[in-house]
Design a protein that fits this description.
Elements lengths: L2 E6 L6 H16 L2 E4 L11 H10 L4 E5 L3 E3 L2 E3 L7 E3 L3 E3 L2 H12 L4 E5 L17 E3 L7 H23 L2
Parallel strand pairs: 1-2, 1-3, 3-8, 8-9
Antiparallel strand pairs: 4-7, 5-6
Helix pairs in contact: 2-3
Length: 168
């Protein structure tokens, strides 16, 4: 029997993002972990935020995949405030669901592992927001060294997941 882990990830991805998601899902499978996600493996019987809580309550770990869902190169931060500043270069945002789902998993004390595309920042993807390191999203064809490094990251995290699952 596989140990369930909640995967926070948009349901719609471009080809490169889907390829990266598959790398992560493969690692989970190799470690005997079952990915659970609203809109992919589980579908709401009630309103979606409640369903996230129900699914996460039955999981022993959480994976947050920060993929770009919106980007812009113009805007104003904190309009009308003394901290106002103009955004003139590309900035990207993940789905807000990443932050909601990460918050739920954090509140449930689930071991978290967080990945993000280079362009993503803010919320759960900012350093120091949680007690976990924010990992670079594995994109494209991975070298042997990169595969080994990714495996080490997952091995360290899955020990915490197994401890949670078995009540250690």
């Amino acid at each position: 029997m596989k140990i369930p882990v909640f995967v926070s990830c948009p349901t719609t991805l471009n080809d490169n993002q889907e390829s990266a998601r598959k790398i992560i899902i493969h690692e989970l499978d190799e470690l005997g972990l079952e990915p659970r996600a609203l809109g992919r493996t589980d579908y709401p019987a009630d309103f979606p935020l409640k369903e996230v809580l129900v699914i996460a309550n039955h999981c022993s770990g959480g994976v947050v995949l920060g993929f770009e869902q919106f980007s812009t190169d113009k805007g104003i931060w904190k309009r009308g405030m003394k901290e106002e500043r103009v955004q003139n270069d590309l900035i990207a945002f993940s789905t807000p669901w990443n932050h909601l789902e990460a918050g739920i998993m954090f509140a449930l004390s689930l071991p978290l592992i967080v990945f993000k595309e280079n362009s993503i920042s803010g919320g759960v993807f900012d350093r120091g927001v949680t007690d976990v390191f924010i990992h670079k999203m594995p994109m494209g064809e991975l070298s042997k060294q990169s595969k080994n490094a990714l495996r080490e990251v997952f091995l360290n995290w899955q020990r915490k997941v197994r401890a949670h699952y078995y009540g250690d």
